[in-house]
Design goal:
176 residues; alpha/beta; 5-stranded parallel beta sheet; 5 strands
């Protein structure tokens, strides 16, 4: 699975997972959108959830946008390709640890690889990050379940289970 990243460069370079992926030769970065190849674009604003059925659509190519969450508006994702949103997953990176849907670029790419049945590729992408294995451990069950789905509607049904569990969690001891 080829991984490509449109790099906006608006986040902290020391914490940028896309730049580290490029440094370890695990992804290709592009600084101009028109250079980004056609593939499955991981877009949190997409109307359809990523599913194993999308593996064929992207012709073996995953595309992510690397930008800060503050600037991740729908307009930022104008890339050519099949746009899909990742389902419910929890971040393992130090900045957003435990937050649902707040994944780094490498977490998003690794999650997509797992959903496409390429767990070894996911582990390879996460290898340069000390918290990389934690991402796979934290999300082991949902990634397995999403990978067993046949299409986007199945993924959404599984996601609804996790979102219902999130809503049902009791308040903490301090009342929050």
């Amino acid at each position: 699975m080829e991984c490509h990243v449109y790099y906006e460069g608006d986040d902290d370079p020391k914490k940028c997972t896309a730049r580290r992926l490029e440094r370890f030769d695990k992804a290709t970065l592009y600084r101009r959108m028109e250079q980004v190849p056609y593939g499955v674009v991981l877009n949190p604003h997409a109307e359809q959830a990523l599913s194993p059925a999308d593996a064929e659509e992207g012709l073996g190519t995953l595309v992510a946008l690397d930008c800060s969450w503050e600037s991740a508006e729908a307009a930022s994702f104008r890339m050519n390709g099949v746009h899909r949103a990742l389902p419910f997953l929890v971040a393992a990176n130090p900045v957003n640890y435990g937050r649902p849907f707040q994944l780094t670029t490498v977490e998003a790419l690794a999650a997509a690889c797992c959903i496409f049945g390429e767990r070894e590729r996911a582990a390879e992408l996460l290898e340069p990050f000390r918290w990389g294995e934690t991402f796979l451990t934290l999300n082991e069950e949902p990634l397995r379940r999403y990978g067993e789905c046949t299409d986007s509607s199945d993924v959404v049904a599984v996601q609804e289970d996790y979102l219902a569990d999130e809503d049902a969690e009791p308040a903490s001891a301090d009342g929050e």
